[in-house]
Amino acid sequence: MKRALLAASLSALPLLPGCGGGTGMPTPATSAPAVSGATASTLLFVRQRGGAVVAFGVDAATGALHGPGRPVASGVTVALFTDPRGRFVYTLDETSVSALRIVDPITGALAPSGSPTPLTLPAGRAVVAIEPSGRFAYVTESRRTQYDCLGPGLVHTYAIDTLGTWSVVPGGDAVTETAPSGIAFARGGRTAYVTASGDHTQLYGPCPRGGISAYTVDDATGRLSAVAGSPFAADYGNDGIGAASPRGLAFILKSEYYAGLAIRSYRVDETTGALAPAGVTPILTANLTPGRLLVDPQNRFVYASWEPDSGPIQTAAFAIQPSGALAPVPGSPFDVEAFPTTLDPDGRFLYFIGGPDGHQIDASAVDGLTGGLSPVPGYPVSLAGDRIAGLAFVRTAP
To answer: Residue 386: CB partners within 8 Å, gap ≥ 6?
Structure first.
């Protein structure tokens, strides 16, 4: 579904004092009060490559963005994360992670909270995830052996206090399979799954395969302990993971450059967290670049994207069956101009970073009955300033 060009042009505004840049920064909060007189709303935070964070309100019914796109933070050079409970936005620069409390659920205005925590993402591919209660965060690390193969990976555990400050959990490191590539949670956050793609290098013989490591999450400390039978699905090319937690299902995006792309479905044992195969859905057998695997927040549909050697990026949509199998959505795959980045909290819209120079936010409407995708009026939206590097939704707490 090709898009028309510019729908709205939004000019970057000067940084607001006390919101991550400029002067007049207020003292970080010593407690995290509720947002006064506010109601819950949906906000979209946009990270630009130059480090600015721009906030928009989102119309939950139409997907339209509200407001001029107000800069609410600066200096974010690496990543942006949101609190599952709608209280904080976490920003990661090159050396530390900091919490910004959402003080206005309408404008997305932010104020410093807690204390920065030293945190440098490991070299290479790293994944950061916050579990559903918002109390623990996990950061993966890939490690290289003396033979130039990647060795077993690690996942580091951080506790998050009521001010949003992260702290290292003693004894919180857990070993993963080689080259961790994704994190998902099931059983209401009681189980964590870490996919690993393995190392395809063949310099001195086969390097280690990847797999799916399953862990029980300690409710008090966040520490991870291996589930019996873990790791599961030892193989190369486990490139992404998504979980439909209330339905007891997990989905893995599996890719091999010559064999193509497929989604592997697994049923989650609700007592132990162990995984059992529930089906394989082939997508394509051709040379391609895999994109992302997204499970809609209502646990109805799965979206997988890829870029073929020629032609537009494509996104395939599947309806989740009770057995865990996936049924293709009518009209799938859909031609899109960029890899899907995220779904809104209600699963009604799929959002992209688009445009020839990465300055546009695009969106597709999700048909609630079929999962099909269609253009959204008013999109794409262009953002002035640096290229867009990330999108993060949050449903604010009233």
So the answer is: 48, 49, 50, 51, 52
Output 304 or 146, whichever has higher pLDDT.
304
> Position of tokens 């899907």?
340
Residue 52: partners with Cβ closer than 8 Å, 6 or more residues away: 12, 15, 21, 71, 73, 74, 76, 385, 386
Q: Closest by alpha carbon to 251, among 270, 231, 272, 275?
A: 275
Could you tell me what percentage of the chain is helix, strand and coil, using 3-state DSSP and rounding each to the nearest 5?
Answer: 0, 50, 45
What is the identity of the amino acid at 257? Answer: Y
86-107 CB burial, b ≥16 within 10 A, e <16? bbbbbbbbeeebbbbbbbbbeb
Kindly state the tokens that stand for 82: 């949101």
User: Would the pLDDT of 17 be above 50?
Assistant: no
- The pLDDT confidence band at residue 151, using thresholds 50, 70 and 90, is confident
Segments of 227-377 assigned E as strands: 232-235, 238-244, 249-256, 260-268, 275-284, 288-295, 301-308, 313-320, 326-328, 334-336, 340-343, 349-354, 360-366, 373-375
| SS3 readout for 340-385 | EEEECCCCCEEEEEECCCCCEEEEEEECCCCCCEEECCCCCEEECC
pTM of the model: 0.83
Residue 238: predicted pLDDT: 57
Q: What is the pLDDT of residues 247-259, one digit of tens each?
A: 677 877 766 655 6
Q: What's the whole-number mean pLDDT along residues 334-338?
A: 79
Would residue 359 be called left, alpha or beta, if left means φ above 0 and alpha means ψ between -120 and 50 degrees?
alpha
d(CA 247, CA 348): 19
The strand order across the sheet containing 65-73 reads 65-73, 53-58, 42-48, 388-395
Q: Is the pLDDT of residue 6 over 50?
A: no
Within 10 angstroms of residue 385's Cβ, the number of other Cβ atoms is: 17
Predicted confidence (pLDDT) per residue in 246-290, tens digit: 667 787 776 665 567 788 888 899 899 999 888 888 887 666 667
